[in-house]
Amino acid sequence: MGVSTGSITRLCRALGLAGYSQLRLALAADQGARDARGTTWREDIGTDIGAHDSVEQVAAAVAATVSGVVTRTVEGLDLAVLEEAADRIAAARRIELFGVGGSGTMAVEFQQRLYRIGLPVWSWSDTHVALTGAAVLGRDDVALVLSHSGGTREPRDVLAEAASRGATTIAVTDVPASPLAAHADLVLATRVRATGLRSEAVLARHAQMAVLDVLYVAVAQRTYDSTTVAMAATQEAVRPYRGDGGGN
């Protein structure tokens, strides 16, 4: 590069380095740190949003990606399987829901919806409690477990326990051939593709919610009379605590 030995030596001294060998090591370490930061960003955020993109660009990328995964998931649903799942949930003596992490959040959301329309439903985030609940299920009961990968041990074990007790088992997963799905009577598949935004961190929850939204409405249709009564009663109960707009 046409740089004299003396210039390199002076640079090393200015940087507090003993010599050229230490300079090379320092440059390699810095490059490794940069590569690690880049890998972390790609894994957690994705490839279609840069660190210096505007908020407008971020919003457009998120909207396009979320819209795509929701559309793919809903269009790819096996509606016959979903209808059977809705039938089993609507008629169940007891419904147990389980998920870990973000999937657990979706399970809680689904539990709140079904609970509001008068169904006997529980959602657990503790594996031991979930296994205890699964152990007392029977043929008139339903266990629904969510796991994006379908390979996480806790959801698999909870669904396997419910299956061993004769309950109807439902898996919501992106991998229909996963260990979780192997214990399921009914599999509701999401359609998340690892493009752009990191799918596991951002898109899986949207895909799961799309499946649960369709399932919830299908269950409500099957329990229409009791659902409308329950909705009216719950709305009236919280009316004094709601704003003029009627929202939460």
Q: Could you please describe the fold and organization of this structure?
A:
With 248 residues, this protein is an alpha/beta fold. 58% of the residues lie in helices and 10% in strands. A five-stranded parallel β-sheet has the order 2-1-3-4-5, sandwiched between helices. The longest helix is centred in the first third of the chain and has 25 residues, at 20-44. 32% of the residues are buried. Residues 36-42 have low confidence and may be disordered.
Q: What's this, in brief?
A:
With 248 residues, the chain is an alpha/beta fold. 58% of the residues lie in helices and 10% in strands. It is built from 9 helices and 5 strands.
Relevant terms:
248 residues, alpha/beta, 5-stranded parallel sheet, 9 helices, 58% helix, 10% strand, elongated
Topology:
Elements: H1 5-14, H2 20-44, H3 55-76, H4 79-91, E1 95-99, H5 102-116, E2 121-124, H6 127-135, E3 142-146, H7 153-164, E4 168-173, E5 186-189, H8 199-222, H9 224-238
Parallel strand pairs: 1-2, 1-3, 3-4, 4-5
| Rg over alpha carbons | 26 Å
User: Which structural class best describes the helix and strand composition?
Assistant: alpha/beta
Most strands sheet: 5 strands, parallel
Please bin the fraction of helical residues: 55-70%
Helical segment tally? 9
Mean pLDDT comes to 84
What is the 3D form? Answer: elongated
Count of individual beta strands: 5
Succession of helices and strands? HHHHEHEHEHEEHH
